Amino acid sequence: MTQSPSQPAEKQGKDIFGIQLEVTSRLLDAEGLRLNVLQRELNKKTGTLSSSESRQREFEKQKALISRLQFQHDMLEKQYQEAAMGMFKSYHRCVKSQRSLPHLGIKQTHKVRPSIFGTLTKEKTPKDDSKKRSLPQTSGLPAMFTEKLAPETSSKPCNGQPAQENHHEDETTPALVYQDGNLNSGTLEAFVQHMVPTVDYYPDRTYLFAFLLNSRLFIKPHQLLHDVCQVCIRQQKLGSPDVDRESSKKFSLKLLQLLIEWTETFPYDFRDERMMRHLRDITQKCVAVDQSLRKNVGQLMQALIRKLATLEKYEDVLSRVNAAATERMHSLRTNPAAFQTNIIDVCPSAYVLAQQLTHIELERLANIGPEEFVQSFMKEEKNEAALRLLDLKRTKNLEAYVEWFNRLSYLVATEVCMHIKKKHRAKLIEYFIDVARECYNIGNFNSLMAIMSGLNLSPVTRLKKTWGKVNMDKFEILEHQMDPTGNFNTYRQSLRAAMQRALGAQDGACDKIVIPFFSLFVKDLYFLNEGCMNKLANGYINFQKFWQTAKQVTEFMTWKQVECPYPRDRQGLNYLLTAPVFSENSLYLASYESEGPETNYEREQYKTLKLQCNAANK
After folding, report:
1. What is the tens place of the pLDDT at every residue in 602-618?
2. Strand order in the sheet with 176-179
3. Which of 21, 123, 213, 285 is in Cβ range 3.0-4.6 Å of 159 for a Cys bridge?
4. Which of 579, 537, 572 is nearest to 413 (CA)?
5. Bias regions of kind Polar residues — which residues (predicted)?
6. What is the C-alpha to C-alpha distance for residues 262 and 579, in angstroms, rounded to an integer?
7. What is d(CA 79, CA 450) in angstroms, rounded to the nearest whole number?
8. What confidence tens digit (pLDDT) does each residue in 403-443 have?
9. What pTM, to 2 d.p., does this model score?
10. Residues 93 and 153 in one domain
């Protein structure tokens, strides 16, 4: 007789809970900082009445976001602790497995951080004779994102220790340092100079992306754009009566191309009115030099406005979805009998549901700006008291995506635990296993992991009699994808295979879809940041760290540009987004009422939960 998930599966669930817990915790820290700044701005009581009301509304929205994240964090923390401390008895299936037991835990060590390559980084001092100094605005850089960085190369500037630089630098001359032909380090001023075009020079696109992505660790985007504008005006004498008109026209065209790339790749930077002001000023100067550029400037502005309008529309949709989910949860509390529908009634086909999950995943991916990874998770030395609201992250797309994973996991557990009859619970488990398998075939690894995480929640795994009715063959195959051994090596191999498949697929084809396990992707970026120094011993910025971060995020940029080719099922989408999700206590209560407690711990927990429920209903 087949039993509930085995000890390896429970440990695999623990590792996923650990990753989700860590990412959610870091989001809470970042959003708490924003709440503090909002509170400080409100206490100042400056500005007009309308601006004060706007800040108050934003403050309330921020509190609601933190409340949701805190709720999810607490549930994940409880699940992680219970799995880690072995509070629940492990149920072993009577099946032979050729796989080794997982042994890697997200909380295994606190002092030593693994790199994105799954090994500890080693200190390696580069040879002095492989370096050369160069002035900015030199020839284009190699396309470093097309080749995978070898671990030995990646560890040079990312060894957790400052690199030893012994050469003399003239502080009066901003310089860039190259190593083996690749940009290695330099001063902030030199990097800014290097991104500014000239009449006969345009910066390499890979350099532009890497610098615009990571520069916000050292300089605010509006300050960077201001500095770029000043370099342009000083260098090309824009606005001067004795300017060379022909050379200025050539320069203005290249500068406009730079601004187009910035607004297309990092449009959310321009939610800041200071950015828009600088953008309008510099484009007006370009038009003054060459009237034929007026059309190009107009197209730039229109495209930027469309992107920002799309973001606002998406944020409005998210707000309404959250409100609808809250309302349905309130209706469930006041009238439990009204909650009779399950996911199979709404969407009988596991394949169709996997398609709808892919719609949600791709929509959320598409709206995440690349800069959000830097703004949300990478450490930046700053004085909280000196922070202004204008300088904080202006989007919540990354947070919304992490929330979605947590919601899907608990929706799966809710759908299983809410049924009194054992055969219905078993049917739901097998249904979700089929959905997870279809997600795997599609390349939707995030939904796959969320579903498997939901099936590994303790209120579900303890249902031994229910699992005894489930065919476990397909579950075991999917279980293998969750194996955390070797830093989730099995999953990473599947992800690489999906990426290779996508390379050969035509636009619009289903094979183009690659949706990573998002929280593990974020964890990789965070560990990369933790393992690499922002600055070298000589004070120069470590640009190899910029390259590696940009390489990781470039893959994400490819994934997010894919449009979902599947038809929409509005009823299924609405259910996935707004169906009530049980809290941790409600899941346990439903689980115990389905299959009674067996251990003393379970009996005590069940007794406590019933008392709490009775007290709440009085």
Report:
1. 999 999 998 888 777 66
2. 131-134, 176-179, 182-186, 541-542
3. 123
4. 579
5. 152-164
6. 39
7. 14
8. 999 999 999 999 999 988 999 999 999 999 999 999 999 99
9. 0.78
10. no
